[in-house]
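User: Some background: our group keeps a shared notebook of sequences we're curious about, and every so often someone picks one and asks for a predicted structure to add to the entry. Today it's my turn. The entry only has the sequence so far, pasted here. Could you supply the structure so I can complete it?
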Amino acid sequence: MTTTRIKGPRSAEPLGPLDPREHAWRDDLADIALADRVAVPNYVVPLIREATAQMPVLSADRADAPASSELLPGEQFAVLDAGHGYAWGFSVADHYVGHVRLDALAAPGAEGSDGLIGPGDALLFRAAAVKAEVAATLPMVARIRWADHDERFVRLVSGPHAGCFLHRRHLLPAAGDPALDWVDVALRFVGAPYRWGGRSRAGVDCSGLVQVARQIAGHPCRRDSDMQFADFGTEVDLATAARGDIAWWPGHIGILLDGRTLLHANAHWMACRIEPLADVVARAAAGGAGAPCIRRAPGRGAS
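Assistant: Of course. Here's the predicted structure to add to the notebook entry:
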């Protein structure tokens, strides 16, 4: 795998505040998009690749490194460097920086239309029939390239499942569907196991739950809970909290189903669970945390 490097200044010097979770730079190189913000010996033109499998985005180039996020099938990854069997770069969808397995990346498909799996997980069939053999399961927010087949099915035209069929009820526009209620999407995760860095019903963390549900409903959403809190709109009082507001503590985020009930993926229960907000507040207080900050999604306004 070959990337294009462009020489820069000899020493590494940040020229402005750069969050390393979303800005890909090291002492020896950086994404060329950061050329006006960080001085390093080399700038790299990203090489765009596509995930052929679901895999963790790791904090280092080794299998036992902690996961920081997850790349889902069909999602694109911008490669800036490679070594030890791993690519270093960032997810194109949310710009999150990390390391992923080189053997699970491939050149992106060029044929067909771009689509999103949702609003739930989806089965891929070996023939265009609901009784056909199931070839694979794709998680919601996975991306596919597809072509028309008939009024019920589309055919995948690239990737490891090229030639398989997907029912149209599991196909969304590439940018998500704003007609969907993102809280309803999040409720589909109830019972899913908690997994640090996870973004699917096979395992999800608190901010992964918020991100995937928002993305399915056509709302761009960054990866970590502090980023999501910063991007949400108006701060509201707990007394006026409503469905779809978020409750945030440093390091944790959840979705309010009403002013008294929280949906969240959490390590206490090791699951995505609905529970009284008062119970979560009491548990957080016992651990030394304060009351949650409540914010309303952009565009909804305060009530």
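Suggested note for the entry: The two ends are 53 Å apart (CA to CA). The chain has a mean pLDDT of 94.
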